[in-house]
Amino acid sequence: MKSASERVEAMHERARLLRRARDRTINGILTTISAFMLIVIIVLAALPGGGFHTIENAGETGSSLLDAGVGGYVLVAVASFMLAVIITVLCIRWREKKHKSEEKH
Fold it and tell me: Which of 75, 72, 36 is nearest to 52 (CA)?
């Protein structure tokens, strides 16, 4: 028969294993999402006219964002930035929650 301290230690070990499994699952999900987004960006760049933009007059590079063909670039840039901010916020919250749960144990 196990003593109370042995049972508590076994419980803590089981909790550590469960946390590690949850962390691996979350890391796998984030990796899958990142890989999917990379594939989406590559596919969008490979579409006809999606990856090539020329500036006719090199002296007017500041006005290149006013060109009619760069709307896709701006959209991809804004969407990528928003996705990066969301992932960063989720990771920060996840880390804070993880530290709080570790401090309790």
Answer: 72
CB-neighbour burial class of residue 26 (10 A; exposed 0-12, middle 13-18, buried 19+): middle
- Domain of 30 in residue numbering reads as 11-48+68-104
Q: What is the block-wise mean pLDDT of the chain (105 residues), using blocks of 10 residues?
A: 87 92 90 88 74 55 60 81 91 86 72
Residue 49: left if φ>0, alpha if ψ -120 to 50, beta else—which one? left
Tally of domains in the chain: 1
Q: With CA atoms as reference, report the closest residue to 23 among 104, 92, 74, 95.
A: 95
pTM above 0.85, yes or no: no
What is the structure's pLDDT at 101?
77
Residue count of the chain: 105
